[in-house]
What we know:
CATH class of the largest domain in chain A: Alpha Beta
Number of strands of chain B: 8
Distance between the termini of chain B: 35 Å
Oligomer: heterodimer
CATH topology of the domain at 5-190 in chain B: Rossmann fold
Order of helices and strands of chain B: HEHEHEHHEHEEHEEHH
Structural class of chain B: alpha/beta
Largest sheet of chain A: 6 strands, mixed
Number of domains of chain A: 4
Helix content of chain A: 25-40%
Number of helices of chain B: 9
Radius of gyration of chain B: 18 Å
Amino acid sequence: xSTSPSPLPNAPAAEQAExxxxxxxxxxxxxxxxxxxxxxxxxxDTDSLPNGKMDQVRRNCAAEGMEFEYAFLLDALIEEQEQxxxxxxxxxxxxxxxxAYAIIDAPGHKEFLKNMVTGAASASAALLLIxxxxxxxxxxxxxxxxxxxxxxRQLVVLVNKMDLVDHSEETYRxxxxxxxxxxxxxxxxxxxxxxxxxxxxxxxxxRSAKMAWxxxxxxxxxxxxxxxxxxxxxxxxxxxVSDIYRFDHRRIVAGRVEAGAVRPGEELVFQPGGRRSVAxxxxxxxxxxxxxVGTGGxxxxxxxxQIFVERGQIASHATSQPRVGREFRARVFWLGKExxxxxxxxxxxxxxxxxxxxVAKIEKVTDAxxxxxxxxxxxxxxxxxxxxxxxxxxxxxxxxxxxxxxGRFALEEGGRxxxxxxxxxxxxxxxxxxxKVTAAERTARAGHPPAVVWFTGLSGSGKSTVAExxxxxxxxxxxxxxxxxxxxxxxxxxRDLGFSxxxxxxxxxxxxxxxxxxxxxxxxxxxxxxxxxxxxxxxARAALANHPFIEVFVDAPLEVCEKRDVKGLYAKxxxxxxxxxTGISSPYETPESPxxxxxxxxxxxxxxxxxxxxxxxxxxxxxxxDWEV
Amino acid sequence: MSRTAQNDHLTRLxxxxxxxxxxxxxxxxxxxxxxxxxxxxxxxxxxxxKAFCGKIPFPLLHIDTTYEFPEMYEFREKAKxxxxxxxxxxxxxxxxxRGVGYATHDPVTVTHELKTVALKQAxxxxxxxxxxxxxxxxxxxxxxKERWFSPRTADSTWDYKDxxxxxxxxxxxxxxxxxxxxxxxxxxxxxxxxxxxxxRENIPNPTLYYSRNGKRFRSLGCHPITHPVDSDASNIxxxxxxxxxxxxxxxxxxxxxxxxxxSMQELRAKGFM
Lengths: 629, 273
């Protein structure tokens, strides 16, 4: 057999626990105040250990000449046993008559604060241990501060090692008085302070005969009085967009409802951007689709109108929308090895939003154990601060007290999360920007990035017809769009050019330059130009390399184009009145791998425009790859 | 669908797993899901289909150790058709040529060569950014320390001493240089949850899990080192009843976990799931 203690596969249920949903409990407190011992004892006393586990650990201890300790049941990794500290949040399970629990044995060692945060952030209740003999220590206070930031409101303080203070009620009372005053200053209140001796199982599950003065609950009795706390169904709808799926004919907005509930038929507003559409259907797979998706539910929504929606936006009802802005004041805990400083750019992650942000100002840095605040120009590791955060583009958010899930965020640097915070106050932007207007600012104002869409094809293939419809659709969806038409250019800018190969190359170069200027201004430029030679088109693409580029091959057989002959040009070319006419007396080189290939002899203009719009949508949603399956 | 308290518990787990799938797909373009054909793996397929509205938009990978039970190969073909799976099958041919096998080598070596190395070979070829795995925190103490998104270095090792913090639904969004992210949607599920969900959703599953002649498999791996447990549970209801009562750990029948004092930790630090 392995010597590593196993967490419970399935806790035995002599009686079926009434609540199948596990409650997550985090165990925190100063190093050596007895967390692991407490949890080991709790598992033992609730009969939650696998068969033979006690004997096995006892044997291992005997083999290594160590005295058995309940903590060994937990310290799963050998290294931990050697170092005698818990490295990471270990999750283990136990059951009371009331329900199942997942207990997170969070470490108390100072440098492992990030693991405690990871554990506590997913907990709905906390047990905080204080050694009765040693009293309230640095980490006792720091952990409570973090619990208050992380939003854990259901707290029981366990005054442990009562056996070392002769089970003295007076010692217990002194710790209660000192620590409850501290909690009060954080806006926290413990549901109970329970005197225990974890090593001997006193007041853990069974009442202690040695503390007859204690009339309150045991630890498991106290836990059983707690409620699952994360039901935000009563709050306004907050549905962050996780993705847009176009796996088949459907266009599905995917996201998890973080607060409130959503039903088909409801109008949704997507912020930032403010575009509106109505939820048409829920596309649930396997079984009938739900008629409502509540908090915590993952939704697959189709919309009645194909508006521009992208990952990061938050859908809400029009009557109670989130705030939209670039600046807010926040209380932040910082776990990064490098200090948090105003000179660096971080990534701000709020639900599915992910934007660049800077610290505009550090207002104060708070000592988490004394609660004293000092001004500072940087925030060292493992401290708590109040700062002004400024994002490079607008984001949707709420204040933390209005809606916790949209009122908190993480800060990331180098792909790794180093801190988190809650939003205390929205701020209007600190004056006008300075310096040159950046592409990011233009994108922020437009609500979409620029792009160049290049329609190539024979005369009469339908380039302008399709492009006009694409332009109309984009314009109606509120996007900045312009057409750069070959004929218009010939009437003005290209008046000096003819149809020789050299002149055609120059015409393509100029069209690309004009499209580039429009894209620089934040627009989606739709270029319609025959551009018959692959080499010229490749040069245009290269010249526009810093913008998303979509080549659309508008394809129809020569006979079809000639038959259409909208401008009567083919007739003239056949009579020899126009020299070097593409398709007749000059070659057209078919694009080899255009982003979009439309066959106007086989599809309607609407269908062709849809094909192009889908490709544009993908670009605008920041996804260059084709994910169709 | 009736919404009993039981269903609500499973629905909550299901919805969270769907969210993890979707975040993974949104963050990493190139995703692959190893598929062992075992019960957890089959639940993953089901959840992925729910996450992506019917069809899984990335390939599945079967690391074929060549020691699978014959029933599993049959099940593979059946399930592939049912779910419309895009399946890649990989064998560590080099190890087979060198004669690595249970007749001559210890289970930890064989597991490492035929599973972990084969997986690394596939990773080197396809360069996936994210691998979706079916591990659960309740299976083993080293798995209890896992994250939803767990970074692996270029040689697939897991730095369990320095894991990124993970809170408020924000996961590691960038794979280490040359490495990948393990995405673990079943982290919060227990063995019992898995079985109750299979029953509720009627998910296709191999019959080896059900008792024949007083024995059944509780966990499935290579046949030479996977041993059945004593059980009369011959259908899913009986399996669930049995699990409610048992105190024997799930992987007790998996020999490679129990060779050394800490063999599971060694295997996992080197890239095993």
